[in-house]
Specification:
The chain is α+β, with helices and mostly antiparallel strands. The chain has three domains: about 50 residues, Alpha-Beta Complex (Molybdopterin biosynthesis moea protein, domain 2), CATH 3.90.105.10; about 220 residues, Orthogonal Bundle (Hypothetical protein af1432), CATH 1.10.3210.10; about 55 residues, no CATH class. It is built from twelve helices and ten strands. Helix 2 packs across helix 4 and helix 4 crosses helix 10. The radius of gyration is 20 Å and the shape is globular. It starts with a strand and ends with a strand.
Length: about 350
């Protein structure tokens, strides 16, 4: 399995990971042979990358931190909550808490705590998938910070509901396929206040969760919105969600830009420690991200190119790599690998977009 752009995916390649729309409905199922028609349609939907099995690399499995079934259920629960709010109702707190509990249960028993997979989803209704991803990323961070079950549940609930205020903003703006105008940006910023007001009036939702919705766009240096809070003035849960929110946003395709690669987003977050983000929280967050995920095609300092086979959590920038091309661009025959934990003079210089 490897991630390739829809521009470079070869017709008749086999889809290795099911593609969903923003509501969790299947667009193309795993195992589908990609045709020119399918690839063109995916591009029209704003999907610039897909996972394929194409014979270029084989026998590489990428485990997710939560199951596909749970992720879909969480997306659907989030959609239901936002649609109820849009219709003038309140989110059903019991279903929200059950969704969070399901994620926590899977994370606690999962052997894989590094995030390797990119969530491939269409642009339409992307908020639902975004909320699910932010919840998963926030819970992984909370776990790394030593949170107990009670704190994880509150953090997860706040993370899953952090964008509920967008239900009160026009779909035309929320699902815009272009960069916001100044007026549109002022309107979208109001979602944090809308979210706070909705959640503080919702039965069995704590005021802490409501504050996560209100504060997740505040920044550590006081340059965020809506109240320009700084440092410890910002609720710790909101400081966690702020990092997860930005990571998922930058890692996701948008109509006006392609997604950034994991190592690129990690570098942005690292460079924003102490300014946008709480440095202690950002460090814990980064520990959960594989900068060179399994299945990535990487350029090595030796001039060789290869595919990442595995990544160690304690040294994520030193993956185990199967060599594909030598330093003259010639294919490497046989199964030759290099473990960068042992070959200390060799390092990854770039991730190759395909």
């Amino acid at each position: 399995m490897r991630l390739v752009s829809t521009d470079h995916a070869k017709p008749h390649s086999c889809l290795a990971k099911t593609i969903y729309d923003g509501s969790g409905r299947i667009l193309l199922a795993k195992g589908t042979q990609l045709t020119q028609h399918y690839l063109k349609r995916l591009q029209e939907l704003g999907i610039s990358s897909v996972y394929v099995e194409d014979g270029f690399v084989t026998s590489i499995e990428i485990d997710d931190v939560v199951s596909e079934q749970t992720r879909i259920q969480v997306v659907q629960t989030t959609k239901e909550a936002l649609l109820k709010i849009k219709a003038g109702g309140s989110p059903e707190s019991r279903k929200i808490r059950q969704a969070v509990d399901d994620i926590i249960d899977e994370i606690l028993v999962s052997k894989e705590t590094l995030v390797h997979l990119t969530d491939i989803r269409s642009m339409r209704d992307h908020t639902f998938g975004h909320c699910a991803n932010v919840c998963i990323l926030s819970l992984l961070t909370g776990l790394a910070m030593g949170y107990d079950q009670l704190k994880l549940k509150e953090l997860g609930t706040g993370a899953l509901l952090h964008d509920v205020g967008k239900a009160m903003v026009s779909d035309h703006i929320v699902n815009s396929n272009k960069i916001f105008t100044a007026d549109e940006y002022r309107l979208i910023q109001k979602h944090v206040e809308f979210g706070f007001e909705i959640l503080r009036k919702t039965d069995n939702i704590s005021i802490v969760v409501a504050h996560v919705a209100w504060q997740h766009h505040e920044r550590y240096n006081g340059h965020g919105y809506p109240r320009k809070l700084a440092g410890a003035e910002i609720l710790e849960f909101a400081r966690v969600v702020a990092v997860a929110d930005v990571y998922d946003a930058l890692s996701t395709d948008r109509p006006y830009r392609d997604r950034l690669l994991p190592h690129e987003v990690v570098e942005i977050i690292r460079n924003s420690m102490g300014s946008d983000f709480d440095p202690d929280i950002a460090k814990e967050f980064i520990r959960n991200i594989a900068p060179f995920p399994v299945g990535s095609i990487v350029q090595l300092s030796s001039g060789f190119k290869g595919v990442v086979l595995s990544v160690r959590r304690d040294f994520p920038t030193r993956p185990h790599v199967r060599l594909l091309y030598d330093n003259k661009g010639q294919p490497v025959t046989g199964e030759h690998t290099v473990d960068l934990m042992k070959e200390l003079t060799v390092f990854v210089t770039n991730v190759i977009r395909e």
